Amino acid sequence: MSVVPPRQAAVLSIANFCEVCSKDDKALADALIDLLRAFAIENGVDPGHIRKMGSDTLLLRLDQLPREEFLDRIRQMAINAQELTVPGTPDVALKVRVGAISERAMRSFVNDAAQSLLAYMNHVDCPTAFLTGDELDIWQSLESVGVDFLSHEQLKYMDIFTGLITEQRFMSLLDEVLNSAEQYDKKMSVLYFDIDDFKSYNRSFDQAKGDELLLFVAHLIRDNFPTDVVAHLSVDRYAVLTNSTDLARRCAVVHEKTKAYSKTFAPEVKCGIFHFEDEVRSPFVALDCAKMACESIKGRYDKTFRLFDDELREQLFTRRYVARHAENAVDEHWIRAYAQPVIDTSTNEICGFEALARWDDPHRGILSPAVFIPTLEEAHLIHKVDAFMVDEVCRHLSERMQEGLPVYAASVNLSRLDFELCDIYQQVVQSCERWSVPHELLAVEVTESALDGTSNLRREMERFRAAGFEVWMDDFGCGYSSLNLLKDYDFDVLKVDMEFLRDMEGNERSKTIVKSVLAMAKSLGIRTLVEGVETQTQRDFLRDAGADMMQGYLFGRPRPLEEGLV
Ligand code: C2E
Ligand code: CA
Ligand code: CA
Predict the structure, then answer these.
(1) Strands (DSSP E) found in 17-137
(2) Whose CA is nearest to atom 42 of ligand 1?
(3) CATH number reported for the structural domain that contains residue 278 in this entry
(4) By three-state DSSP, how is residue 54 classified?
(5) Is residue 125 part of a domain?
(6) Cβ-contact 334, 362 below 8 angstroms
(7) Looking at the structure, do residues 348 and 278 belong to the same domain, yes or no?
(8) Residues near ligand 1 with C-beta < 6 Å?
(9) Residue 434 and residue 521 in one domain
(10) What is the CA(550)–ligand 2 centre distance, in A?
(11) Domain for residue 314, yes or no?
(12) What pLDDT, in 10s, does the model give residues 233-273?
């Protein structure tokens, strides 16, 4: 049952539930929640407006009341709740929390607000609190009922969801430590924790379960760094400032316990560590270095933490360079179009090419897209590059047509952001018009990340197809929902990710998977292109397995577009 977000709501929760009711005493657990429900009804809540949120919590929808009356009603409920005792054991009191949530606090989602409020009440061990919009309001409301346990400053710096400190507070503490001479301690480190693929966890279960995991990890990190500064940075990211030396062991504990938290999903918490260095005095740089170390081991099952080392330092320099020069690169055409041939399996002849971007830097030589594409995406400049690449391809095709040379169809890569940052369809159409290139000669490649959730992309893709362009799905198989996308979208070509070929030789299972993917695409009427073909053996296998097209170093590396394909 989904409750329509009410304009006013309250949470009722038994804070000492675990103490008074053992895990397997189902009968008592039911009796407790029934008691809570009866209490709500006695206090005037409509029985149809009560929803169970967890084993010990109810969410109540209340009738709209003027603010003061609403707060009075909650206060009265909190007073009445002091009488509640455990059924069958009348001398054991129940610690009931009553939290009030009003309209302004519920802009996003009532469950979130309720969970935050409960976490907050548990943290400060307070029977009642009011979430009426922002932290200041909570504080004022608490003060107005004479509750006084946290200073305004403390409250401002506390993340009410986890009870940890906020990112803002963490950064200012870090700044203090890095910049006060006597406190500067070389043995200090900044740790950055991140839950791998938390989005999928949320999707596999639900938001409430996701929140439980976030809280579990928050408390786990705090418990493992009991004397250190621990912060909740954002959804699934946490940071620690510590001078302890057995970091590897502590990270391993956090990792293992989180993995064991859900047997079916086995969530992975990764940690990046930055040891203080003399030259780093900016808290942002310190945290960034830890973050970078953490991100470098995302998705790797063999690593649970990584130090910020020389290799990462070098990467950081390049990234910074790229970020600083992103606009120059776009405006001054340091970005150039390269092309890699695509082979038709049945004829063994070139049948097309993929346009790939290169950054030809006046000082640093050729930079690979792996380095600059993510930075250009971050800087919201990627659409300019993609539009430029399309135009370059059209210009090239038009020149060849005019010179009477053979012309091959081309595919270009589009970023997810192109669809947000500009009307990329219009840009492609304009380039075709400018250079008189028929639409049939162009295909756009999109990856599955472009398709996650945004519904207008389906419309965008249909626009391309309706105008005679082909739409190809790139990197098929490297994400988790590729198969679903085939169900929901029409693609002309499936580009099978080169990862599939990596360990294919001698691995029967990989071969079976590739064969099935190719057969499945065929039965759906989708053509196939396998990327990353490097050896004769791979090529022979793929031909027998029915791949329609191939691309890879075996047939040709990407070369400057103007130099032609062979
Ligand atoms: P992608 O679209 O999957 O492109 C294929 C990548 O595989 C290219 O890397 C290509 O050089 C490489 N490759 C081709 N054959 C082989 C092979 O036999 N073995 C191996 N090991 N690699 C091979 P590249 O050019 O470094 O591009 C990397 C990624 O950057 C591309 O992956 C694409 O996602 C992105 N990219 C490149 N150009 C553009 C662009 O103009 N716009 C956008 N948005 N993304 C681009
Ligand atoms: Ca591609
Ligand atoms: Ca690809």
Answers:
(1) 50-54, 57-62, 85-86, 89-93, 96-102, 128-131
(2) 413
(3) 3.30.70.270
(4) strand
(5) yes
(6) yes
(7) no
(8) 340, 356-357, 368-370, 373, 382, 385-386, 389, 413-415, 474-475, 498, 531-534, 551-553, 558
(9) yes
(10) 13
(11) no
(12) 988 999 999 988 899 999 999 999 999 999 889 999 999 99
